[in-house]
Design a protein that fits this description.
230 residues; alpha+beta; Pseudouridine synthase; 11-stranded mixed sheet; globular
């Protein structure tokens, strides 16, 4: 997947002295990896350097990540004071994350809580969901509700209770509701852009420095399916 970010189409959702929230596009990687593709973190650094005419290096801390095929909110720390507090906020699940997913089949219930034990398989970068605990598995919990019925798909709103590898993708697949475009977890064909219809829609948390409540909402990507979801 070779879709890379550029400063000119960087969508800033929120910014203050300590943090910046970006609406990540499908295909962007949050942090550098073995592909060598330019990560979103570097693009944001360039944006900040240019915007504030900063000499030398720009500080930017990565507090959490999103899978490359997904879109939505990513929050970065602009100061060394904010980063450990953001890290703690995400690791201790003090940030409420809400996702949108477009899935193939109707779930068995309009809303429900899903609990699985997920085991990760690093060799092929997948996870598998089990109904009972197995060796090296981690408990995964989410709630979902159907918020719209589309022509051929269903739009689900998902609240994550835990943060496991590919959690939403694998738990919905276990429900026989694979996410549109997600070949890895059972959808029958890929999306043209190589992404999947999973979007980090909203995040609510207490500001790591100011201590005030913040809610950030990200519009989904501009395509026919997402445009029918609003």
């Amino acid at each position: 997947m070779k879709i890379l970010s550029h400063k000119k189409n960087l969508q800033v959702l929120y910014e203050d002295n300590h943090i910046i929230a970006i609406n990540k596009r499908v295909g962007d990687i949050v942090q550098g990896d073995k592909t060598g593709d330019k990560p979103l973190s570097e693009v944001v650094k360039e944006y900040l350097k240019e915007k504030y005419n900063k000499p030398g290096n720009v500080y930017l801390g990565v507090a959490h990540r999103l899978d490359r095929p997904t879109s939505g909110i990513v929050i970065f720390a602009k100061t060394s004071k904010a980063l450990p507090r953001l890290n703690k906020l995400f690791s201790e699940k003090e940030a409420k994350k809400t996702y949108w997913a477009v899935v193939k089949n109707s779930p068995p219930k309009e809303n429900d809580t899903l609990t699985h034990w997920l085991k990760r398989f690093p060799k092929n970068n997948t996870s598998k969901a089990y109904l009972k605990e197995v060796s090296e598995s981690k408990k995964a919990v989410l709630t979902y509700r159907v918020i719209k019925k589309l022509n051929r798909y269903y739009l689900l709103e998902i609240d994550l209770k835990t943060g496991r590898h590919h959690q939403i993708r694998v738990q919905l697949a276990a429900l026989n509701c694979p996410i549109k475009g997600d070949l890895k977890y059972g959808f029958d064909r890929s999306n043209k852009n190589g992404g999947i219809h999973l979007h980090a829609r909203k995040i609510s948390f207490n500001h790591p420095v100011k201590k005030e409540a913040i809610t950030i909402i990200a519009p989904p990507p501009d395509d026919v399916i997402w445009n029918n979801c609003s």
